[in-house]
Each structure stands twice: as C-alpha cells, then as structure tokens.
Amino acid sequence: MTFFEAKDVNFHFGGFHALRDVSFEFGKGDVLVVCGPSGSGKSTLIRSINRLAGPLTSGSMSIEGRDLAGLHGRELYRRIGMVFQRFNLFQHLSVLDNIALPQRRVLGKSRREAAERARALLDRVGLADKADSYPVRLSGGQQQRVAICRALAMDPELLLFDEPTSALDPEMVGEVLQVMRGLAAGGMTMIVVTHEMGFARELATEILFMEAGQVVERAPPAAFFANPREARTRVFLDQILHH
Amino acid sequence: MALLSLIYDAATLILSGMPIVIVLMVSAFFPALALGIVGGLMGASKSRLLRIVAGIYVYIFRSVPFLMFIFLVYYGLPYYGIDIGPVTTAIIALALSHGAYMTEIIRGGLLGFDKGQNEAAVALGFTITQRLRDIVLPQTLMAIIPSLLGQSILMVKDTSLVSVVGISELTRLGREVVIRTNEPFVVFTIVAAAYFVLCFGLEMVARRLEARVRKITSRQ
Ligand SMILES: Nc1ncnc2c1ncn2[C@@H]1O[C@H](COP(=O)(O)OP(=O)(O)OP(=O)(O)O)[C@@H](O)[C@H]1O
Ligand SMILES: [Mg+2]
Predict the structure, then answer these.
(1) A2-13 sheet: strands from edge to edge
(2) Reported ipTM
(3) What is the reported pTM?
(4) Which residues contact A108 (CB under 8 A, 6 or more apart)?
(5) Chain B: closest CA distance from residue A157 (Å)
(6) How far apart are CA B154 and CA B161, in angstroms?
(7) Which tens digit of pLDDT belongs to each residue from B13-47?
(8) What is the percent of chain A with per-residue pLDDT over 70, rounded to a whole number?
(9) Beta-carbon separation of B123 and A92 below 8 A
C-alpha cells in the first residue's frame, strides 16, 4: 500500500528549474535510496519534502493520502524527521539535552520523560556513556549517531537522510550505517540520499537515480545494479562502483 | 608627609565617586543589551524595513558625539516639561548610545550563526521564538560575551562625560578636589588610577570568559 507519494513535483530556485516532474511512491517500512551526480537535485528533493527548500512550484507530495502542503509546520515536522550530512547538533547543549530539548519543546514532554527517552536511545546506538558530553568532544560518527537519536526521539513516521555518511572519515562510516541498518530492520520508513552502494544493495526497497532534476530510473536494487535500463544510469554506476 | 595626607584625603573623597560609576555602568548595561538584542535581531532579519530601522539607529548613535546626547536629554527634555534628573539622564544616554554599538556586535554574531543548526531546529519543529530563545541567542550571546564586556569598559569610560550634568562621579569629584588643593597632577593621577583599576578588572574578567567560551565552542 502506498505510504508516501510525490506527484509531478516541480521546484524552482528563482529561475532555476531544480526538480522536473518528479513522481514516485513507496510503502510503509520501505527504504528509498536516492542517488545521482552532484547537483542533480537529491538534496532539493528531500528538502522539499519537509519544506526546508520552500514551497513547491507545482505538483504535490502526500503521506497516507494527506497533502503535505496542507499540514501545519508543527504537524509536518513531527511526522517527518531529518538527519543532515553535517550532523547539525546544538553546540551549546550536552548530548542528552540535544535529544531531550526538542521532545520537551515540540512534543511537550516533561524533563524526566524526555531524558529517559534520550538515554534509552543513546543506549541503543552505543553512546550511553556520552550523555553528558558536548558535541565538540565527539567524533563525527558519534555525532551522527546522536543526531539520529535526536530525530528518532520525535517518533517520526518518515526519516530523511541527506548523505549521512559523506562528511565522515571512512573508518566511521560503518558505525552509522550499522545504526541505519537497525532502523530498517525495525521497520522505519526512510529516504536516504547516499552513495554507499553497499548499503543500497543490502537495504533499499527501491533505488531512485536522479540527474538534472529528473528521476531517470527507479528500480529495486537487484535490477538497478544488474541491468539498468538507462545508459545514464550505467555511466553513473560505472563511475561510482569502479573508482 | 603633607603629600601623603593630601593623597589620602583626595583618594578617600574621589573613591566615594566609584560606586556611582559602577551603578551607572551596570544600570545602563542591561537596557543597552536589551536594545542591542532587539536591534541585532532586526539588523539580521529578512525584512528590509527592519534592517533599515536598525541601521538608522546604529548610524545616528555612532556618528554623533556622546556628549551631544547627554546635552540633548539633559537640557532638551526639560524644555518640553520632562524633567528626569541627572542620573536617569546619564543612564538613558549611556544605554541608547551603547545599545547602538551592541546592536552591531549582536547583529554580527547572529549573521555568523551556524545555518545548519538553525535548519535542524526548524526540521525538529521548533517555532521561531523557540529557535531564538533556545538555540540561536544562547550561542550567539555566549560567543560575544568578550565583546560585550569590552563594551562595558567603554561605558565606564563614558561615565566620565556625565560629570557635565552634575553627577558626583570620579571625574567631577576629582575636579572639585583640584580646585580646593590646587594639585591637579596628583589628583588626576588618582582619578586615572581609579578608572584603570575598574577597567582593568573588567578586562581581566573578559579575558577569562573568552578563554572559557573558546573552550566550549571551538571545534576539535
Ligand atoms: N539555494 C539555492 N539557490 C539556487 N540554486 C540552488 C540552491 N540550492 C541548490 N541549488 C541548485 O540546485 C541544483 C540541485 O542542488 P542539490 O543540492 O539538490 O543537488 P544534490 O544532488 O544534492 O548535489 P550534491 O550531491 O552535491 O549534494 C544544483 O544545480 C544547485 O546549484
Ligand atoms: Mg546534496
């Protein structure tokens, strides 16, 4: 059954046509991996889902049939979480407060409830001992795991990841992917912009390949890697897999 | 012996002007900071109109000598039937003038704020007021604490100008002692030393805070 649907989405940055007639849909619990060359509109696509990019020029996006444009900001952000390439943790707050404060401010939870949830999540990603540290004291991989906890604490229905491992040193990529693997196994619905093709092959329900603001190809990983229909996809895969 | 007792008498009298300097500085500092926060938020906002209003405020107060504002408030307002007395005059003039400098400091801090953290707060569902109160202002103010303390040093020095409206602060007391003793060099040395101790103390606090702030906000 369809959970999320994008229909003929167009998006402009001023005069620049950044998303062109983008349509796709996926079900609850699916992991949609988005890939494509730099500047193809991957970030713009996921940032237009939670309105960080601004309103669409035309077309629509919906969750369980409800148009996202009609949702109040609060409601929209409660349903859709986001994990950023550069973590974007709040620098003046401890790891625990980074995860607890949004729960208190946005969900109206008590200090104790929020802290308990934060601790449980930290424990899950193996960072229970870092609760009182400040973000600057953590490695990139640890910061990204905290950022994932912060998003999860809001109980989103959909989690967006914009290149969650590409700002990390290679030795830290694994620990973050491990956490995401756990999320997928737990049934979390996710859209993941990434060039980690191993991750895509293993966990994606579908892979969406973009170029110049368009969806060029959309297929389950087996078909996507074994026999891509489009020549452009083949060129991209050649580059990314053999370099 | 005569010199020693002169120094002692003069210093005692002059130092009685120290508390009012501190009172003026402290009671003008917080209104100035409030003006600076409002002005800084306006100056860093997306609205062109708000930016222009903040800009006008800043440029007026940066381009006219502080003494003129004291005269304006002290002699100008009573002319319209508003009589507020010298101390209030001094506090208002100090707050308005230094609020303009703080506006610039805070605007700069806000413009330098990490866009990523702001976006993260939006994506988590924070309202704009929550974002400012919980994320943007705490970090911005923490980062500019040293500059704000630097501004408070300038405020201490500007209090010497309010002697013109008859407040018995350090400078005015010093001049009175000079008239009585005819020892300008000794007396003004004492006055200068009093300012130095105050400002140097603030400077030391600023340095120490700066080191601490750097420790918290610096990246690995
Ligand atoms: N704020 C903006 N204003 C104008 N143009 C923009 C803006 N943000 C992105 N663009 C343009 O939109 C296009 C798509 O950008 P986007 O960031 O979505 O690409 P991407 O696929 O995420 O690339 P990358 O792999 O480098 O992250 C690019 O050509 C980019 O220059
Ligand atoms: Mg991108």
Answers:
(1) A16-27, A2-13, A58-63, A66-67
(2) 0.94
(3) 0.87
(4) none
(5) 13
(6) 12
(7) 888 888 888 999 999 999 999 999 999 999 999 99
(8) 100
(9) no
